[in-house]
Design a protein that fits this description.
The protein is of the alpha+beta class and 365 residues long. It folds into two domains: 224 residues, no CATH class; 77 residues, no CATH class. 47% of the residues lie in helices and 14% in strands. Helix 1 crosses helix 12. The longest helix is centred in the last third of the chain and has 25 residues.
Amino acid sequence: METKRIFTESPEDEQWRLLMHYTYPINIKGFLKNNGNSNPSKKLVESISGSLLQAKEYFEACKLSTLQISPLLMYYGATNLLYGVSNLITGRENKIENHGMSIQIDNSDIKIADINIYPNSSKTGALSVFCNIFCSACKIIKSGKWKIEELFASIPDLLNDFLDCYKEGKPYVIPVQILKQRNSNIERIKPLCLERFKDFNDIFDRIKEFENNYLPPQYTSKMKYIILHPKMGSKNIGIYSISGQKFLKLSYLKNGNLYNPSLEIIMFMALYALGFISRYNPEIWNPFIRNDISGEKLLIEKFLYYSRRLLPNLALNYIMDNRVVFVNETQGFIDNSLYMTKDEVKSIVKEEFRKMMDRERMDLR
């Protein structure tokens, strides 16, 4: 997926301005026509428009709400956003009748991170429908339980907060440094980022399509870095933080199978869990908000912020078929002052050669 850079001083506002473009019937019909549906029903057009408009309202309301209700508002907003985008990019009405997930809480004293989510088998459940559209190769229905902690561990922008909050927690994303060279790029990982894992090799086995796109990892002297060489013709299998940092994402091992849901699905599942607990288990949620001393509350607040910022961005990626990156830098100005032309290089080399010859003549005297 190519990168599309968009200038703005307010990414959160700009991404919604771009999404609101698809709340107007003429724009919706134009998009659908370009993607093979030249005669969409009025119901389909209104479902797309209404879903995106409601999503924006929920996201705005979440910004103004406390942690008592903001998870529920974010879940409603995420549901509307993903539903509207699903209908837009598939060109059909996708039938949703339930959440497609359930929550089971056996002990009200457990950490929020330890609460389990169970995907169910409903074909018309929101989770199943969205998985079929946003990560069709990942069939997580009947995959067993998913802890909220596992989901938090897969969000790049939460990595440092996750490691601080859950001292024994294992991350599911690995930060990668990209070194751009003259004829190729190499990538490297600091072993410190893998210190919570027992076996480094097992980690790379759990990265989807790693072997198809990278040569076997190499280790520098004294294990300063783990070097990754992309194969010729490889594709980019990484995901990115808001700042543009690349990460490699580990798959989840469930019932002997590996699952690799997309970032929007991971966030959607976590939002469902938090929204459900805050709505239907106030005996758990209220004491947690009032008495938390672990820092988990701060982590959840950050998760809600990043959900509000990232989900609309991810939705735009699907609509525009590009990785949309918002930048705040001078436009229409290219600084080539640090680069030299071919003639300038030749002139410098010629002058240095002349000086060398002059020195040699002086030495001969």
